[in-house]
Amino acid sequence: MSPSVSPRFFSTKEVSRHCTKDSCWVLLGTRVYDVTGFLSRHPGGEALILRRSGTDINQQLDGPPHRHSVNARRWLEQYYIGELIRDDVDDTQAPRQRIKGKELTGEEEPTGLSRCSKVDLETDLVDWRKPLAWQVGHLGEKYDAWVHQPVDRPIRLFESEFLEARTKTSWYMVPLVWLPVVFFMSWYCLTLLAQEKTRVHLTSNYSLLVNKYSFPVIFLLGMFMWTFLEYCIHRFVFHMTPPAHNYYLIMIHFLLHGQHHKSPFDGSRLVFPPGLASFVIGTLYLILRFFFSEVLGMSLFVGGLFGYVVYDMIHYYLHYGSPRKDSYMYGLKAYHVKHHFEHQRAGFGITTTFWDHPFSTVIPSEEAF
Asked: What H or E segment, with its residue span, contains residue 277?
């Protein structure tokens, strides 16, 4: 809500009526928030919020057991809808801004999703009414802090409809494009290995036969190899710190990954466009073919390609899924949310936290959102 707009006022009775999945309100002191659109995204599950609907959540934000980050509190402000009128206050003494929960402007009360997309257009460092790709480079030393203050609204990158469309991808396009490649190349590798002509030369006098029964092991090694590449790309490319004086590196960083941290729930940009991914995938294939024989290199590659598909699907699910509490995915979701909201310089593993341990980038175990 813009500071220039007078807040609406709600009675305790009105707030208490919004305690369902279809309409969920919470309080922070006397401030009222409609978090309906955030229920499915909450890393702790929607049940935790629903149990506290209509009540003051200030204690839960401070913990224990969950200490919520500064960014989480800032994120909550996007859902602000008005103020609470205490029961002991004469309703006639409150500003006449309320008619059955609506403003006197005659406009219908917006939904939770529309409210949570608001950005202060007057004070923000960029003009959200224009494409952001050409603006972020001018932020200089302010860019890093700005990009790590997430908002819940779509981002427009380019004025051109053609370019803008190339930056968006539906989640199902990843398996639709790459799984047929995985299946075909798996069949091709199995066919070659079944001929039992592939040998790995360990010494000049000793070699090891690689047959079709070795393919699952090589495939799994390729998947494991991908988890390392995933970690390295995420840490050293996506989370590079572009020089404050370099306009173009800041812009490139924003296009590659910065826009995802600025708007982490933009569903159209949670997976890689196949065109962009093909450059990385093609490079991986050429490197493996350079160091290994055709069938070994291809078997490792197809495992790595499948690992990439799993990575993109898991990443999408971590932002939009509601995993069962205490499950593996529940832990990953909480871990990844902490990466977005509090520990942007740690927690680079997506499909697994394995590589964060040897490289000392593990997010502290204290839960935070």
From this structure: helix 274-291
Alpha-carbon gap, residue 22 to 111, rounded angstroms:
10
How far does Cα 234 stand from its chain's mean position?
13
pLDDT in tens, 297-325: 999 999 999 999 999 999 999 988 888 88
Residue 117 predicted with pLDDT over 50: no
Q: Tell me the pairing of strands 8-11 and 207-209.
A: unpaired
Q: What angle do CA 152, 156, 162 make, to 5 degrees?
A: 140
Residue with tokens 């859902």: 79
Number of residues assigned to the chain: 369
What's the predicted TM-score (pTM) here? Answer: 0.74
Which residues in 32-59 are b (16+ Cβ under 10 Å) and which e? bbbbbbbbebbbbbbeebbebbbeebee
Q: State the Cα–Cα distance between residues 63 and 157, nearest whole angstrom.
A: 38
**Contacting residues for 187 by C-beta, under 8 A, at least 6 apart:** none
Q: What is the pLDDT of residue 78?
A: 75
Which two three-digit tokens encode residue 209?
């036969």
3-class DSSP state for residue 225? helix
Give per-residue burial for 65-79: e unless 16+ CB within 10 Å, then b. ebebbebbeebbebb
Are 181 and 305 spatial neighbours (Cβ–Cβ below 8 Å)?
yes
Contact assessment for residue 57 and residue 27, using Cβ atoms and an 8 Å cutoff: yes
Q: Are 332 and 354 in contact (CB under 8 A)?
A: no
Question: How many Å apart are CA 333 and CA 336, to the nearest integer?
Answer: 5
Task: Say whether 238 sits in a helix, a strand or coil.
Answer: helix
Phi-psi region of 54 (alpha: psi -120 to 50; beta: other; left: phi over 0): left
Beta strands in 236-318 (DSSP E): none
Q: What average pLDDT does the structure give for the chain?
A: 83
What six digits make up the tokens of 145? Answer: 């802090």
